[in-house]
Design goal:
heterotrimer; B: Rossmann fold; 10 helices; 10 strands; globular; C: 10 helices
Chain lengths: 154, 268, 266
């Protein structure tokens, strides 16, 4: 086989290889959806974040509006300090409520934002004051059993 | 002998403490064909590798021109090697290249000649060994004799000053042997080169070389022109030249007494 | 009798120690060859046709086996996954399952194992034979460094081919999984892709898989090259070296996979 024919084959190989990688990025992965343009950062404190992880989505009304950038433990307040990166296009009032939800019964956890009614919007580096922790299944079950037990006693 | 292109002085070499050569002195005058002969395993090929700088001597030195081979740095050694051509025992042609590309290989690596010039040179070299017609064959498609001739064309591709032949006759039929003998003589004279032939083929070698070194037991056992050696009365040379079975080189490998060995019945 | 046991034990220990030291020796030589290869890479990358030739031999000629295996692996994943997932009533998650297993693990790992068997053995045998027939020696005598001319181009050929092959493996595997899950089993096609896109992260899954396959490319190619370069120049030596290439590459790939996965997941 002469050199030019080899060149051709290698060219085809390289092209489809790169195409496959791009395909993985676009069609399979979430490169297109996670590609948030400019962002602003807000933080929120939680007593318990459950299974929340960095890069988990932040949704409002079911639409992905940002991602979790970092999760730290704040030793002053003994809370989890979660840093959110939100899309510049979406603005939320100052009194927005941040909840940790679970997708489905056993799915991944995400933060849901419920806008309040404040006139002013959240700015870069603001803190979301109102938060609700992750639902811990064991706690719920034990509460349920406890209430059942007290019910039957009466 | 004043103009020696290769000079070996008091050379010792060995592996893991066992010396193969014990103080060898040889000189190779410019323009001559010199044979290095000796039994199998006497370290003939090793001498070529020492000259080429692929091995380092334990003691003594090899001089090529005015340079001591084992003291050369990487780049100087490469420069020195460009003056040498070597024909390996089985030809050592590159099996993934065609005959043409094999001969062109050293030119492509070391020169930046245009393709048309390389083509002319390759044709000349291949014509000299009579294989211009075989240029498009792959190296694997050649017979032993043809492969040896292509390898010879490759060895002289850059017109070396020193051509080394490692067992050029091994495994060849008588016709191919004659062809190779002629080629060695003709190329040497045409290129004005110096040839070193390592071989144990007495009959072939004596027919065209100028000078012969015999090595045995790590030293030069005898030296001289073919005519001198034919008349030599040294027992070793006599045995070698005339191909006798037993003599100073014994037929038996060192072994305990035959009778006792047989009676003992088993090896412990 | 006691003495006999002790001496036997001693000889076993001695044997073990010898082997251990031998392995260290080989590891050192391999590292040295790796260093030389990197050092002389510039020389061979300046002549790209040498590398292109090797990409042809290691990459293009491995395409068939990689693509066919990927297709079957994807189909099996879909069948097995559906079987389990439907018990929990989440059969739409099949796309996620197929894509994540391929992109994160099976793509890079199976590609590397197949590569070791197909291209690695070819490299070892070729270099071993070149050594046995004195081609490498001849090159050295022509003042051409065999590492720059023979080893380095093959190294880069392998390192470039591997990630491309692994990407193709994952992509074709996902297509195979799609074919089984959607037209054959009847999972909803939209759910298949959308669930996949929601759960497969570009940086954490696709990029990490890509990094894995690059590392496997270096490891497999280097092992194949070293075994060939180190092989005793006999027919038996070359055949043993070829076997060692497959064994050592497979072990290296699985071991490295564990190490890298533990880093990537934490």
């Amino acid at each position: 086989m002469d050199r030019t024919k080899i060149d051709l084959w290698v060219g085809i190989f390289a092209a489809i290889g790169v195409a496959a990688l791009l395909g993985l990025a676009m069609k399979v992965g979430n490169l297109t959806t996670s590609n948030i343009g400019e962002t602003y950062t807000v933080t929120a404190g939680f007593q318990n974040i459950g299974g929340l992880k960095p890069r988990s989505p932040v949704k409002s009304a079911g639409v992905v509006v940002g991602r979790i950038d970092a999760i730290q433990f704040d030793s002053a307040t003994y809370e989890a300090k979660v840093t959110l990166k939100l899309d510049k296009r979406y603005l939320f009032p100052k009194d927005t409520f941040a909840n940790i939800y679970t997708a489905g019964l056993l799915g991944e956890q995400y933060i849901g934002l419920e806008p309040g009614g404040d006139e002013e919007y959240l700015q870069d580096n603001d803190k979301i004051m109102q938060t609700q922790d992750a639902v811990v299944l064991e706690k719920m079950i034990s509460q349920f059993l406890y209430s059942k037990a007290t019910e039957t006693k009466e | 002998m004043t103009d020696n292109i290769v000079q070996i002085d008091n050379l010792s070499f060995g592996y893991k403490g066992r010396l193969l050569h014990k103080g060898i002195n040889m000189s190779f005058p410019r323009g001559k064909i010199v044979a290095i002969m000796g039994g199998s395993g006497s370290g003939k090929t090793t001498i070529l590798r020492l000259i080429g700088g692929q091995l380092k001597p334990v003691q003594g030195e090899v001089r090529v021109g005015d340079k001591v081979v084992h003291q050369q740095g990487r780049n100087d050694l490469q420069k020195l090697r460009r003056k040498m051509g070597m024909l390996f025992q089985q030809g050592a042609l590159f099996t993934d290249l065609s005959v043409y590309e094999n001969v062109a290989f050293p030119m492509r690596e070391h020169t930046s000649l245009p393709e048309s010039m390389i083509r002319d040179l390759v044709m000349m070299k291949l014509n000299a060994v009579g294989l211009r017609g075989a240029r498009d064959l792959m190296a694997t498609e050649l017979s032993g004799g043809m492969a040896r001739r292509v390898a010879l064309a490759r060895a002289v591709a850059l017109d070396p000053e020193i051509i080394m032949y490692d067992e050029p006759f091994a495994g060849l039929d008588p016709i191919s042997m004659g062809v190779i003998c002629n080629l060695i003589r003709n190329l040497n004279d045409a290129l004005g080169a110096t040839s070193l032939v390592v071989t144990h083929d007495v009959k072939e070698a004596f027919s065209f070389v100028d000078y012969v070194y015999f090595i045995a037991d790590g030293v030069v056992a005898a030296e001289g022109t073919p005519a001198e050696l034919r008349e030599s009365t040294l027992p070793f040379v006599h045995q070698f030249v005339h191909g006798e079975v037993d003599g100073p080189v014994p037929f038996h490998y060192a072994a305990p007494d035959y009778r006792r060995d047989m009676l003992r019945g088993r090896d412990v | 009798m006691f003495k006999g046991v002790v001496s036997k034990l001693a000889s076993v220990l001695q044997n073990f120690g010898h082997r251990l030291i031998e392995q260290f020796w080989r590891l050192g030589s391999a590292s040295r060859l790796f260093g030389y290869t990197l050092a002389s890479s510039g020389e061979s990358l300046r002549r790209p046709f040498l590398v292109i030739r090797e990409i042809y031999f290691t990459g293009v000629l491995s395409l068939i086996i990689i693509l066919v295996s990927a297709f079957f692996v994807g189909m099996v994943l879909a069948l097995q996954g559906y079987n389990t997932l439907q018990k929990y009533g989440s059969s739409e998650a099949i796309g996620v399952l197929v894509a994540l297993s391929l992109v994160r693990e099976l793509g890079p790992v199976v590609t590397a194992l197949l590569f070791a068997g197909r291209a690695g053995t070819a490299i070892t045998a070729e270099i071993g034979l070149m050594k046995a027939t004195e081609q490498l020696s001849a090159m050295e005598m022509m003042a051409v460094s065999p590492i720059a001319r023979v080893v380095a181009p093959r190294f880069w050929g392998g390192v470039i081919s591997m990630p491309l092959l692994a990407s193709l493996f994952s992509m074709v595997g996902i297509l195979g999984g799609y074919l089984v899950a959607v037209p054959l089993i009847g999972v909803d096609g939209g759910a298949f892709w959308s669930q996949m896109q929601a759960s497969v992260d570009f940086r954490e899954d696709v990029m990490n898989g890509f990094i894995k396959s690059c590392v496997f490319g270096v490891a497999c190619t280097m092992i194949a090259l070293f075994e060939g370069y180190d092989a005793p120049p006999t027919a038996e030596g070359v055949s043993r070296a070829t076997t060692r290439t497959v064994v050592n590459s497979s072990l290296a790939v699985l071991g490295l996979d564990f190490v890298m996965t533990s880093f990537m997941i934490s």
